[in-house]
Inverse folding.
């Protein structure tokens, strides 16, 4: 007899476990959508309201996969990052005249100059992976903001894991 | 922009001194029979730290208006003594008293103090001085240091300054007192470049700013439209190296203070970071990322062909010259984590020197050559020092996030910036080599990346 009252606690526990392990390393992949951004469950087509091929369309179609996350001090592309970058690459291959900037970021728990270099390394890791998927490297530029532009303002593991990131922004 | 400050030879009696145009240093100590002075340093708690120094309001021969914000020569005299007292007090040096609560010596008493009354006040040392308005609008400032117990003059010096530079004369006076009594090199007459910060954590506005060592004469150099980071004053104070996002790509610019113009250090399209001067100002170090890999380069300050100094697949960044310019300490993560290395100035002989737990970053060689200050990262970020071979590591601060040390010109005090947890608000702090005398530097808004320039000529 699977009543909701028996299922819910189990689900909460699972979610809690996932969240904890996620915090220790990387940000959870299913982030809430950006405020105001259009969302759609239809991944194969452009969203109503966003012009096909626009940055708004890219954000809507990739559903949070415009950003990949890194472990502390790391810049390697893991399985989750790979899935996200494949979504990005699908979109970029669909609109071959679109260019994009990849912004590399770090958490605040490092020195300023090193983080500038680390952000550059992360942005380039994303760029190289997109290139390996067929996106011409000439279409992709990188910029590092180091720890200067955190997405999550807190000083805790959860915020830091969301700030160690590379964000792909297409140029309208 | 370069101020003209002429030192007077103090051989002449008070009131008769004439400007010595070529002199650049305060007069040599002419007190007969004096030994090497009291030895010690800010890193010790030597006897001299307990000296009680009375700093009296500076006198004037004639109370006339001046072209300073301080007012007439009489008011300026008080202002001068207040700057001297604040320099010594704020840096935890000696036990200064005055000018409040002390008698105001007459002009004639400056060269002939009433030692008896000062002894009665329990003063060990006495600082007196005078200010005169010259017909050409310049100011003449004299500074005298006396040993009250001996009833003897220890040192005197004088300077001719343009009105806008009156505080420099006071800093020179404080430097004279500090140097004579401690045996250390001076540091008050110096300036700082730093980054002024405003706005929310995720969108901080970061502007290049400069100020005197005591926070006076503050000036913003950039508007904040483009993020500015990591400034470094040139050794001659004519220009500042810093990073700007002006053209979208983080790049190193040379900002010329006389013309308020700036130029790129190198044009490559690649991001450049972490600029540094050589001690003689002839070389610029910078770090450049190519395809994600950051290495350290040097280029003549006047331009020319960059020379790559490091070539590892890791991040090599920063760099700080030894005082003689022969070596460079820098940070690299080639071993797997940030650590401090030393190499020759041409890039040869690279070797790691930091071997303790945690990460070690932002090494800065002391102007004295005997220490390297750095940021130690083991959870928290803390300021630490070690000797140039990596030994004798010790912490100077213990807070949540302190980083980016910069040395006072005499190598006895370190400034750094401290970031608050959660709010991300940053402020400038300084600490002496004991780690005990720590204080926050007042700035108009939040502040980071302090860079201390050398002692001014």
């Amino acid at each position: 007899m699977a009543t909701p009252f028996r299922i819910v606690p189990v689900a909460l526990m699972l979610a809690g476990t996932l969240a904890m392990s996620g915090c220790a390393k990387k940000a959870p992949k299913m982030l809430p959508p950006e405020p105001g951004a259009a969302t759609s469950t239809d991944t194969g087509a452009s969203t109503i309201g966003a012009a096909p091929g626009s940055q708004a369309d890219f954000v809507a179609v990739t559903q949070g996969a415009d950003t990949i996350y890194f472990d502390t001090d790391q810049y390697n592309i893991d399985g989750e990052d790979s899935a996200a970058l494949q979504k990005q690459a699908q979109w970029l291959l669909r609109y071959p005249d679109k260019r994009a900037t990849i912004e590399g970021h770090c958490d605040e728990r490092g020195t300023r100059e090193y983080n500038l270099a680390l952000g550059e390394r992360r942005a380039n890791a994303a760029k190289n992976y997109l290139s390996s998927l067929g996106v011409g490297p000439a279409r992709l530029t990188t910029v590092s903001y180091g720890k200067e532009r955190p997405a999550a303002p807190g000083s805790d593991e959860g915020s830091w894991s969301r700030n160690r990131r590379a964000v792909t922004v297409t140029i309208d | 922009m370069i101020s003209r400050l002429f030192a007077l030879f103090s051989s002449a009696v008070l009131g008769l001194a004439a400007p010595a145009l070529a002199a650049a240093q305060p007069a040599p100590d002419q007190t007969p029979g004096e030994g090497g002075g009291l030895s010690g340093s800010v890193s010790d708690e030597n006897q001299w730290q307990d000296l009680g120094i009375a700093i009296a309001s500076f006198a004037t021969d004639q109370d006339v208006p001046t072209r300073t914000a301080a007012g007439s020569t009489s008011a300026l005299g008080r202002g001068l003594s207040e700057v001297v007292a604040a320099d010594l007090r704020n840096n935890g040096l000696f036990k200064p008293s005055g000018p409040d609560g002390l008698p105001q010596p007459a002009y004639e008493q400056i060269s002939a103090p009433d030692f008896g009354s000062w002894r009665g006040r329990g003063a060990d040392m006495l600082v007196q001085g005078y200010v005169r308005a010259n017909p050409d609008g310049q100011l003449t400032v004299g500074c005298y240091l006396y040993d009250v117990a001996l009833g003897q003059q220890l040192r005197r010096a004088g300077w001719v300054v343009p009105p806008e530079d009156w505080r420099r004369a006071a800093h020179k006076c404080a430097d004279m007192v500090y140097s004579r009594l401690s045996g250390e090199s001076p540091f008050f007459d110096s300036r700082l470049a730093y980054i002024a910060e405003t706005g929310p954590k995720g969108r901080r506005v970061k502007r290049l700013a400069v100020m005197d060592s005591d926070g006076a004469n503050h000036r913003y150099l950039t508007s904040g439209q483009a993020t500015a980071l990591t400034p470094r004053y040139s050794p001659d104070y004519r220009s500042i190296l810093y990073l700007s996002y002006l053209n979208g790509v983080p790049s190193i610019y040379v900002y010329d203070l006389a013309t308020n113009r700036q130029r790129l250090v190198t044009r490559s399209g690649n991001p450049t970071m972490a600029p540094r001067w050589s001690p003689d100002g002839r070389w610029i170090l910078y770090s450049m990322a190519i395809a994600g890999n950051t290495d350290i380069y040097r280029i003549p300050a006047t331009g020319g062909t960059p020379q790559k100094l490091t070539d590892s697949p890791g991040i090599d960044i920063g760099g700080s010259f030894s005082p003689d310019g022969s070596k460079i300490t820098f940070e690299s993560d080639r071993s797997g984590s940030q650590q401090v290395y030393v190499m020759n100035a041409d890039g040869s002989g690279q070797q790691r020197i930091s071997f303790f737990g945690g990460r070690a970053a932002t090494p800065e060689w002391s102007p004295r050559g005997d220490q390297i200050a750095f940021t130690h990262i083991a959870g928290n970020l803390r300021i630490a020092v070690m000797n140039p071979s990596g030994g004798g590591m010790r912490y100077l601060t213990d807070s949540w996030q302190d980083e980016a040390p910069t040395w006072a010109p005499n190598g006895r005090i370190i400034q750094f910036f401290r970031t608050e947890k959660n709010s991300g608000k940053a402020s400038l702090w300084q600490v002496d080599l004991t780690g005990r005398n720590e204080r926050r530097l007042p700035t108009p808004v939040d502040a980071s990346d302090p860079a201390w320039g050398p002692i001014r000529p």
